[in-house]
Amino acid sequence: MIESAVGALVKPGCKELCGNVRIPYPFGIGADCSLNKGFVVFCDETFRPPATTLTSIDREVLDISLDRNDHHVRIKVTSEDDRDDTGTGIAVDFRGSPFMFSKMNGNYTKRVEYFPAVLDWAITDEEALRLPNRDGNAFACYQFNFSQYVPGTMRSGQQCFCSDGYEGSPYLPNGCEDIDECNDPRYNFTCPADSICVNKVGSYACEPKQGKKAWPIIWGKTRIFRFFF
Q1: Residue 82: DSSP 8-state
Q2: Mind listing the pLDDT tens digit for each residue in 84-137?
Q3: 43 near 29, Cβ under 8 Å?
Q4: Which helix (H) or strand (E) holds 177?
């Protein structure tokens, strides 16, 4: 079962899922739901489960992640794909797309039916400058240089991430929303018996119950703890 994120992941009126694959913006099912033609996804519901194809490179999508620690797309590469000389062992035409093979792939030399290949991706610097709410605290964008370069493809771009304590798509207006860590079952956070959990914007805290005093101690960006006496 795929858990829903707190913040917005798709444009209004657009589908979030194609079968079991979540399609977060800037990707989108159809041109009206994506940032540009490079991120268009075709959802073929004649298959069971539906087949998800990234049309700019004509490859089936296995997974899309906006996570700071896993900002990648995983595609299915089959044994029918020709070999190349870029060090990946497989050939995909990335010209005109925002994608390139990630250095996480290594070198594939064995013939298999199919395997998941990891792609790096980014938006252009111009697209990043046009993002709404860029001056807020909910997200930030960073320069990203592709580990490989093929003529006709992007050399660098911007990758954007929701700030700690926020979740959603930073590419959408108000897409990064505050996480309520006190009530979100994924965090399973509990406070000591003499305190209660209170959600903060971008963080949370253990507040003293009535009659208690506390000295606040902040640890990291999203956790606030207090000593009681």
Answers
A1: P
A2: 544 445 578 888 899 998 887 765 555 566 778 899 999 999 999 988 776 678
A3: yes
A4: strand 176-178
Q: Which element (helix H / strand E) includes 125?
A: helix 125-129
Number of C-alpha atoms within 13 angstroms, CB side, residue 65?
14
Q: Which residues contact 194 (CB under 8 A, 6 or more apart)?
A: 208, 209, 212, 228
Alpha-carbon gap, residue 191 to 185, rounded angstroms: 14
CA gyration radius for the chain? 21
3-state SS assignment for residue 39 = helix
In whole angstroms, what is the distance from residue 14 CA to residue 32 CA? Answer: 8
Cα–Cα distance measured from residue 227 to residue 185, given in angstroms and rounded to the nearest whole number? 25
Please check whether residue 61 is in contact with residue 55, taking contact to mean a CB–CB distance below 8 angstroms: no
The domains of the chain, with CATH numbers, are 17-178 (no CATH), 180-229 (2.10.25)
CA distance 191 to 194: 8
Record the pTM. Answer: 0.79
End-to-end CA distance of the chain: 43
In terms of C-beta distances under 8 Å and separation of at least 24 residues, what long-range contacts does 150-156 make, across chains too? 150/86, 150/94, 150/95, 150/100, 151/95, 152/94, 152/95, 152/96, 153/94, 153/95, 153/96, 153/97, 153/99, 153/100, 154/98, 154/100, 154/122, 154/124, 156/122, 156/125
What is the C-alpha separation between 49 and 194, in angstroms, rounded?
A: 50
CB 160 within 8 A of CB 141: yes
